[in-house]
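Listing S7. Sequence submitted for prediction.
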Amino acid sequence: MYHIIYIFIFLILSPILKIKAIRKGYDFSFKERFVLYKDSLENCIWIHCASVGELNTAKPIFKFLKEKGFNVVITVSSPRGKKYAQKTYPDAVIRELPFDFVFSVRRFLRVYKPKALIILEEELWYNLVRITSLEIPVFLFNGRISQKSFGFYKFFKRFYKKILQSFKLIACRSKEDEERFKYICSKCNTILCGDLKYISSLDEKDIQINFPKKNLIVAGSTYKKEEEILLKALKNLPDYILVLAPRHIERIKETKKLIENFKHKYELFSETKNVDKNTKVYLIDTLGVLSSTYKYANIAFIGGTIEDIGGHNPLEALLKGIPIIVGKNHYKIKSVLEDFKEFVYIIEDENDILKSIKKIEKKEFSFNIKEKVERIKNCYENILKKYLL
């Protein structure tokens, strides 16, 4: 039944997808989708990523495999994803995912002869998984079933059970996801590893800054209202230096004037890397520096959370073991904050900032966060070592 439905959908949608791709400046290749090409790649692992998000999530897996001497072929589900993958993974072979016909999947396996297939998150194509699993082990990494899609899975439980049974192992991103997989397929081989997105794979500049022996608050991607609150609170924090990185670099002049209004002594990153002992604010006026400054921090403030922006990336701080303070407008990063809720302090104003800082001073956070991230990293790497090395 699946094959009949898939052929029917294919006949209707493939011309539409082709036209849409051309209009957006991408190439939707039937040649690639039917695997009508010759190629070869020795000692390779196949990774499939549906979208740009999964391509980013896969970075630590790709890095580990390359370090162990594997070649990697990455398939993507869209022409846009292919373009991004080619830019992000220059050392990999990038292909569009074969159509979910038995002959297409089998031809792809014959062309590349991969030793294993790793699928990211929730891309559960019937023939892709079932046919491939007859020849090589298939893994689902960062496996997830959202609450929104769980009802669909339950309605087609028998269908998805057949797919899930074909996985060698399903490494789940959360306890809730593992429970949902088990509900659909109670005998499936699952393990709770955690979310791969917490393993930082960003290249970081090795920037050295000499700070005096004081506590540091690094405030990243800030806006004017947030800077005013932080600068006001700083007057009551004699043992702290505020490292301030505005979200928009063109606001540096405005931010300098704001600091002067609060009568704080400040220095600019572009002018010195040796911070004076009497400096209260160290202003980051250069792009690409913020991530490196977190390693010096005792506490981080995440910008865009007092202003109604929704919050900017907190992982650069969290993954360095830094407890964070955020405002109430953190809806864009809510899931991240929930995962690390014991390390997050939510504030309303400068008085809450002072209270939060006092609480943070009494606790040890860094090792807990680092250990949590290391456990996630080790879980996925141990799977790869067990089955592939």
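Caption to Listing S7: primary sequence and predicted structure tokens for the chain studied. The CA atoms of residues 113 and 163 lie 21 Å apart. The mean pLDDT is 89.
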